[in-house]
Design a protein that fits this description.
By secondary structure, the protein is of the alpha+beta class. It has 17 helices and 19 strands. The strands form 5 sheets. Strands 1, 2, 3, 5, 7, 8 and 10 form a 7-stranded mixed sheet that branches. It is elongated.
Length: 566
C-alpha cells in the first residue's frame, strides 16, 4: 500500500510538472530564459506538412512535449513543427519578439493564428540572402503584437546542420539589451584576437620564425569559424552567398583544425622529438581531409559536417596527448599548450551540456566554448611571447659571449673595436687626449713550458682581475691575444696613462700563484703606453705605437713602463 501511494505521488508530481512546464505563454510576462518547456513538437515521417495540416495535428494532440528548455534535434534532422499558445489577459495588445538564437537554420517559417485564422507569418533562413530577412539580425527574429485573448504560434524549422533551438520570448527593450551585451562581448573578443594576429604577424616578419605565422593563421581561421556559427559572417562578410553560408561551418572547422595541428606540431617540435607521433598525426589529417573532400564532391553536407566535427574532436584529444608527452620531454612551453587545450575542451563540454539540458542554459554556459577559445588564444600568445623573450635573451647572450674572451671574461678584439670606435670618433671631433696601454706578461712561454698551461691560464685570470680592479669606469679592456692585453683610456693625458700603467705593474708584482708543494710563484709584466690628441692618427696607428713602446720595455729588461717620455 505504501509503495502504491508513493508511486501515485510521483505520477501526480510528474503530471503537474508537465502541465507547468508546457503551460501557455503569458504575453505580459518577461521570460528571462528560453521557453523550450512551453513548446510542443511534431516531426512527421511522411510527406511535408503545410501549415493547415500542422494546425490540425496540433489540435488533435499529435504534438508532444519538448521537455527541455533548449530544443536539440541533432544533425540532419527532418523538418520539425513547433507550437505554443500565447495568452494575453490584459486590455491591449502586447508586443513581443520571438528570437531563435541559432544562426545556421536553412528555413524558418513562423505563423501566428487566432481562432484558426492566419493573421501574420514570417519566412526566413540561410537559404535566402541576408538582405531578404524581415529584420536585419544575425539570428532569426520576428516581432508580433499579441492581441487580447489566445494566439497560437506555429513554427516550421528545417536545417541540414545541427538543429539547436534556443527560443526566447522577449520585449523590444530586453532584445535591445541582449543585442548590446552580445555586441560588446563579441567586439572585445574579436578585437583581442585581431590584435594577437597582428602582433604575431609582425613577430614573424621580424624573426621569420614559423610558429608565429602558423599561430596567426590558426587564429584567423578560428575567427572566421566563430563569425560563421554566430551569424556575424553572414551579416557582415558574405551576406549575398547562401551557398557559402551553408558550407562555411564544416569547411572552416577543417581549416581551423588543420592550421591548429600545423601550429601544434611546429610549436612543440613534435617532428624531431616524436617522429612516429608526427607521422601518425599527418596521416590521420590526410585521411580526414580526403573523406571531407569526397563528401563535398558528392554534395553530402551532413557527412561533411560529421567528418569535420569528428576531426576537431580528434584534434583536441590529440592536443592533450601532445601537450603531455612534450611536457614529459622537458619542453618548457608545453605547459601553456596543455592548459590552453584543457580550457578549450572544458568550454566545449560546458556548452554541449547546456544545449543538452544537463546544466542551466544561459549566456555564459552557451558561450563557454568562446570563453575557452579566448583563454586558449591568450595562453598560447603568452607562450609565444615567453618564447620570443627567451630567444632574444639567448641571442643577446650569444652576441655578448661572442665578444668575450672565455678565459679572462675581458673583451676580445672584435668587442674592443665595437665599443671603442664610437668613443674614438667623438674624441677625434673634440680633439681630446686619448691613450692606449698595451701590456705583456714577461717570459710567459717559459712559464707555460715549465709549469704547464693550467698554471699559465691561472696567471692570465689573476692578471685580468687586477686590470679590471685598477681600470677606471670609462676604460675599455681587452685580451689582445695570447698573453697580451690592451687598455683604451679616453680623455687621458700621457702622464696620467703612465701613472695608471705603473700602478697596475706594481699590483701585478705583488701577486703570486701557488705551484707544487705549496711554493709561491710571482710574475711580472711589461707595459707600452701611447698617446694622441691630433686627428691625423688612426686608432690602429695608436695601438701600433703602444706595441712599439711595449717592445722597448722588453728591450730595457722587462717589468717596466715605456711611453716615449724619456
Amino acid at each position: 500500500m505504501r509503495n502504491i501511494v508513493i508511486s501515485l505521488i510521483i505520477v501526480l508530481l510528474s503530471t503537474c510538472w508537465s502541465w507547468a512546464a508546457n503551460g501557455d505563454i503569458d504575453a505580459a510576462t518577461e521570460y528571462e530564459e528560453t521557453i523550450g518547456r512551453h513548446i510542443w513538437v511534431y516531426q512527421h515521417e511522411g510527406a511535408g506538412l503545410d501549415m493547415q495540416d500542422a494546425l490540425a495535428a496540433y489540435r488533435n494532440g499529435q504534438f508532444t512535449s519538448s521537455g527541455n528548455s533548449v530544443l536539440n534535434f541533432g544533425i540532419g534532422a527532418k523538418p520539425v513543427w513547433l507550437a505554443f499558445k500565447v495568452k494575453n489577459n490584459g486590455h491591449k495588445a502586447v508586443r513581443r519578439n520571438l528570437l531563435l538564437e541559432t544562426a545556421w537554420l536553412d528555413k524558418v517559417d513562423i505563423y501566428f493564428l487566432r481562432h484558426s485564422e492566419l493573421i501574420d507569418s514570417y519566412h526566413t533562413g540561410d537559404s535566402l540572402v541576408f538582405s531578404q530577412r524581415p529584420l536585419e539580425h544575425r539570428f532569426f527574429v520576428t516581432a508580433h503584437d499579441f492581441s487580447v485573448g489566445e494566439t497560437i504560434v506555429l513554427m516550421r524549422i528545417e536545417s541540414d546542420d545541427e538543429m539547436i533551438l534556443p527560443v526566447y520570448f522577449i520585449s523590444d527593450e530586453k532584445l535591445a539589451d541582449r543585442n548590446q551585451l552580445q555586441a560588446y562581448s563579441y567586439g572585445f573578443m574579436y578585437g583581442v584576437i585581431l590584435a594577437l594576429v597582428a602582433y604575431n604577424v609582425m613577430l614573424y616578419l621580424g624573426l621569420r620564425t614559423n610558429p608565429y605565422l602558423l599561430y596567426s593563421i590558426y587564429l584567423l581561421f578560428f575567427l572566421l569559424l566563430n563569425t560563421a556559427y554566430t551569424g556575424h559572417g553572414y551579416q557582415w562578410l558574405w551576406p549575398e552567398s547562401p551557398y557559402w553560408q551553408k558550407w562555411a561551418n564544416p569547411v572552416l572547422i577543417m581549416a581551423c583544425t588543420v592550421s591548429g595541428f600545423a601550429f601544434a606540431l611546429q610549436f612543440l617540435n613534435i617532428k624531431a622529438a616524436w617522429p612516429r607521433v608526427y607521422r601518425f598525426i599527418m596521416v590521420s589529417s590526410a585521411v580526414f581531409l580526403a573523406l571531407m573532400l569526397l563528401a563535398m564532391l558528392n554534395g553530402n553536407f551532413v557527412a561533411s559536417l560529421l567528418i569535420s566535427l569528428v576531426f576537431i574532436f580528434f584534434f583536441y584529444v590529440s592536443s592533450i596527448g601532445l601537450g603531455v608527452i612534450s611536457l614529459k620531454t622537458g619542453n618548457r612551453f608545453a605547459k601553456y599548450f596543455l592548459l590552453a587545450s584543457i580550457f578549450t575542451i572544458c568550454g566545449g563540454v560546458i556548452t554541449a551540456n547546456a544545449i543538452w539540458g544537463l546544466i542551466p542554459f544561459n549566456e555564459i554556459t552557451y558561450r563557454a566554448t568562446d570563453i575557452g577559445m579566448m583563454m586558449d588564444a591568450i595562453l598560447l600568445a603568452l607562450a609565444l611571447a615567453e618564447r620570443f623573450n627567451i630567444n632574444q635573451s639567448e641571442k643577446l647572450l650569444a652576441e655578448k659571449m661572442a665578444g668575450i674572451d672565455s678565459l679572462t671574461n675581458l673583451n676580445n678584439r672584435r668587442s674592443f673595436y665595437k665599443f671603442v670606435q664610437p668613443i674614438w670618433a667623438m674624441g677625434l671631433r673634440s680633439k681630446s687626449n686619448t691613450a692606449v696601454i698595451m701590456l705583456d706578461i714577461d717570459n710567459f712561454k717559459l712559464l707555460n713550458d715549465t709549469y704547464g698551461h693550467a698554471l699559465g691560464d691561472q696567471v692570465l685570470v689573476q692578471l685580468a682581475e687586477i686590470l679590471q680592479k685598477e681600470a677606471r669606469s670609462g676604460d675599455i679592456l681587452a685580451r689582445w691575444g695570447g698573453e697580451e692585453f690592451l687598455i683604451f683610456l679616453p680623455e687621458t693625458r700621457l702622464a696620467d696613462a703612465v701613472a695608471i700603467a705603473e700602478r697596475m705593474r706594481n699590483k701585478i708584482n705583488a701577486i703570486s700563484v701557488t705551484i707544487a708543494k705549496g711554493e709561491k710563484l710571482s710574475f711580472t709584466a711589461s707595459f707600452g703606453v701611447a698617446h694622441t690628441c691630433v686627428t691625423s692618427v688612426s686608432l690602429d696607428e695608436l695601438i701600433s705605437q703602444a706595441d712599439q713602446q711595449l717592445y722597448h720595455a722588453k728591450k730595457q729588461g722587462r717589468n717596466c713602463v715605456c711611453s716615449g717620455l724619456d
